[in-house]
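User: Can you help me understand a structure? I only have the sequence.
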Amino acid sequence: MRRATSALGVLLLILCTGIPAHAQGTEWETLNDEVMSLYRQGRYDRAVVVAKKALEVAEQTVGPDHPTVATSLNNLAELYRTQGQYAEAEALYKRSLAILEKALGPDHPTVATSLNNLALLYYAQGQYAQAEPLYKHSLAIDDKAYGPNHPDVATDLNNLAQLYYAQGQYAQAEPLYKRSLAILEKALGPDHPDVAQSLNNLALLYASQGQYAQAEPLYKRSLAILEKALGPDHPDVATSLENIAELYRKTGRAEEAEELAKRAAAIRAMKR
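Assistant: Let's start by predicting it. Here is the structure, written out as tokens:
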């Protein structure tokens, strides 16, 4: 899955399509790889410096309106977004989107990614009215390009559901979460970590409404998948344990909650 509204799911838009043969494997690609590496390490200040250099190289090599330039603009925007520099990020995301729409056409899946990234920026600022049409447009593009049962469509559905959830519009969010989950189970298999995330999102929706009997089995299935796929000491397992512990507290099972909370804390301590 290339997109999601969780911090771990937000991916830099990496475009290799359209890079001329003489440019592949040269300075821009090397710089872009370094940006990705620094981003994964959380070294954002250094990554910004390298991303600016990559943008400069791209503009000089292929001109200001090339998809490669859009990639560099997007990557720099993502670094700014991650650091909360939203105004700087917005201008770059918009320029990247405009280039892609012109170069690739308005219905290209890469345009859907760009729309999603801009929507995520608005979502992060609570600007839900601006995010919603962008998420819907991204969903429409991917649905047309890939068909209704593709994992990217599942991600789009999840993102839109997350937007409704954040506004307390639970009735609108629920069918989107359910459809997203069904697509992922079919496309990726029932034991994939992305399925676990989808189960967790649906469980959280129910728990937020006090529907604990519906939430609990989803949380537990999510935990089982994560333990098997990632190992018992992964930070995502700790998050899953904390979610179940919170549900136990709210349903009067304090001792069970404490047991899970201690296990989660032990995992967190190992990762420091």
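Now, to help you interpret it: Confidence is low (pLDDT under 50) at residues 1-11, 14-25. The two ends are 28 Å apart (CA to CA). Let me know which part you'd like to focus on.
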